[in-house]
Amino acid sequence: MVLLAALMSGGAFWKHMPFWVRVGTGLVILLVFSTGFSLPAWKELRRRRAFFPWDWGLSIYPLAFWLLLYYWGFGPHEPANFMELAPVGMMVMPVSYLRAYVLNRYLTNPVVSSLVSILLLLGFAVLMRLVMPALPT
């Protein structure tokens, strides 16, 4: 998370890079970490036959939805608000484990638990856009 903050806010090396390069690099690092740390939960879901093809995009959905909300002008519209992507992307890990070990026990249909986990992530992205103030640049 600190590395992601350093990449997106700028350091000695990154200060000379354009903003879109820093955000893109931060997104790739965020996708790699959130996917990598979610793999054990996804393996458990596959073992229980509760992992579906659309679940492979679980790391991408909230980030893409947040970027879409930003593009539409929903919430504060400052470049520093791209830091909201870090908690939105990191939320994939707890939701994956929540689905693997809690939701599948209470919801009998694994498709419903998959859709609930996707809705939780998208709802968190909307919540971040609504709650976060405009961060100073």
Chain-wise SSE layout:
Layout: H1 2-9, H2 19-47, H3 61-72, H4 85-90, H5 92-106, H6 110-131
What does this structure look like?
The protein is mainly α. Helices cover 67% and strands 0% of the residues. It contains six helices and no strands. Helix 2 (19-47) packs parallel to helix 5. It starts with a helix and ends in a 6-residue tail after the last helix. The model has no long low-confidence stretch (mean pLDDT 84).
Task: Write a brief structural summary.
With 137 residues, the protein is mainly alpha-helical. It has helices spanning 2-9, 19-47, 61-72, 85-90, 92-106, 110-131. The longest helix has 29 residues, at 19-47.
- Low-pLDDT parts are none
How much strand?
under 5%
Overall average pLDDT: 84
For the termini, the CA-CA separation is 19 Å
Please give the number of β-strands. Answer: 0
Structural class: mainly alpha
Helical run tally: 6
Largest sheet: none
Shape: elongated
Spatial extent as radius of gyration: 16 Å
Helical percentage = 55-70%
Give the SSE string: HHHHHH
Main traits of this protein?
single chain; mainly alpha; 6 helices; 67% helix
